[in-house]
Amino acid sequence: MKVMTVFGTRPEAIKMAPLVKAMNADPEIESILCVTAQHREMLDQVLDLFELTPDYDLNIMKPNQTINMITANVIMGLEEILKKEQPDMVLVHGDTTTTFATALAAFYNQTKVGHVEAGLRTYDKYSPYPEEMNRVMTGHIADLHFAPTERNRRNLLKEGIDEKNIYITGNTVIDALLDVTGKPYEFEDETLKALDFEGKRVIAVTCHRRENLGENMEHIFGAIRRIADEFDDVEIVYPVHLNPKVREIAGRILSGADNVHLIEPLTYQPFSNLMAKSYLIVTDSGGIQEEAPALGKPVLVVRKETERPEAVEAGTVKLAGVEEETIYGMMKTLLTDPAAYKEMEHAANPYGDGHAVERIVKILKERL
Ligand code: UD1
Ligand code: UDP
């Protein structure tokens, strides 16, 4: 049985790496890995950490690429590879443009598609943009759906997806997180090494969503800057996404304060250890909303909505929106009100038990 996995960005790579490793080690599966390299450096960081060598690399990334460019280059790049390899199934992950374009190229080749992290929805076409429609369209191409949670399964059923093709597996991000945080680690990054995690309260920040580029991001960073200026026992650590548009806004609003550290994207090992040692996380990332509950870390999500309400219900995640005053107020509360902080500071595992990969491999063997 031949399974071809295709991914292109950092989060897809983190969440698919444990699955690809398991398939590589399985004598019953011929596992092929194709990366689109929609991200280059941030993808390579993950490939290095998990010691994965792709069989194919489309190497499509361009500075300031548009969604159309990514879509066209992925579809064109995959055409010959799919024709040559004729896999029994192509596996894609989540909701990036690599995900949707790969599913479409596989469908045009009449190759079955398995969708890992299926069924997340906000029901707002433009938020997150373009991820909501990417995952809806991928879901309607896919033949097998690996849903992290019961809620995700129900979302798919509502859209008419056949229940016999939906499996609740948990999210593979927990498999990756437990693997990486289970190993002893000491920071190598000079900024992280020098940070006083005991004496100071460290706030880890990430921000990159397309719908936040511009005004929203200015509000988010404005709030963070005010907190940094007001609290001298706070250290802000922000590994800035390589998107030049993000870097411009971050540099403009956040640089120049002694307690704000704008650093390069971290590999997954230091980043997950940074999360584990932080007091609070402020982010618009999807994956971090899944990881933080497992680590018992309070998260303020700087978005208007979330497709991951399980973490909000578990109490570890709160939606802070994209208005400066609200974000500032919510950060301040968590810094000044111990009861409010305590309410959010507990570990929960709504996204899985670390065995999603085993389940997916077993299902693939049954179904292919
Ligand atoms: C992409 C995904 C988003 C996902 C995010 C994870 C789409 C449309 N967006 O958004 O769903 O949440 O990845 O991070 O699929 N860049 C580099 N080096 C890198 C990575 C990015 O230089 O390793 C720069 C390039 O100039 C690139 C830009 O960042 O053009 C934007 O990258 P892109 O993949 O288009 O969008 P993201 O915002 O990263
Ligand atoms: N992450 C990382 N290094 C960083 C920032 C994030 O390894 O400097 C990890 C994070 O733990 C999570 C994933 O990257 O697993 C999230 O990726 P990103 O925010 O790029 O995408 P999203 O989750 O929003 O799709």
Structure report:
This protein has 368 residues and is of the alpha/beta class. 47% of the residues lie in helices and 15% in strands. It contains 16 helices and 13 strands. The chain has helices at 10-24, 41-49, 67-85, 97-108, 131-141, 150-158, 172-181, 190-194, 215-230, 244-254, 268-277, 287-295, 309-314, 324-336, 338-344, 356-367; strands at 2-7, 30-35, 56-57, 89-93, 112-116, 144-147, 166-168, 201-206, 234-239, 260-263, 280-283, 299-301, 317-319. The strands form two sheets. Strands 3-2-1-4-5-6-7 form a seven-stranded parallel sheet, with helices on both faces. Strands 10-9-8-11-12-13 form a six-stranded parallel sheet, with helices on both faces. α1 (10-24) crosses α7 (172-181) and α1 packs across α16 (356-367). The mean pLDDT is 97. Residues 9-11, 38-42, 61-65, 67, 95-97, 130-131, 208, 210, 242-244 line the site of uridine-diphosphate-N-acetylglucosamine (UD1).
Beta-strand proportion? 15-25%
Overall body shape: globular
Secondary-structure content class:
alpha/beta
Largest beta sheet: what is the strand line-up? Answer: 3-2-1-4-5-6-7
How do the SSEs run, as a string of H and E? EHEHEHEHEHEHEHHEHEHEHEHEHEHHH
**Biggest pleated-sheet summary:** 7 strands, parallel
Bound ligands, named by name, code or SMILES: uridine-diphosphate-N-acetylglucosamine, uridine-5'-diphosphate
**What distance lies between the first and last C-alpha atoms, to the nearest angstrom?**
7 Å
What's the number of extended β-strand segments?
13
> What is the rounded Rg?
20 Å
As residue ranges, the low-confidence spans are none
* Arithmetic mean pLDDT: 97
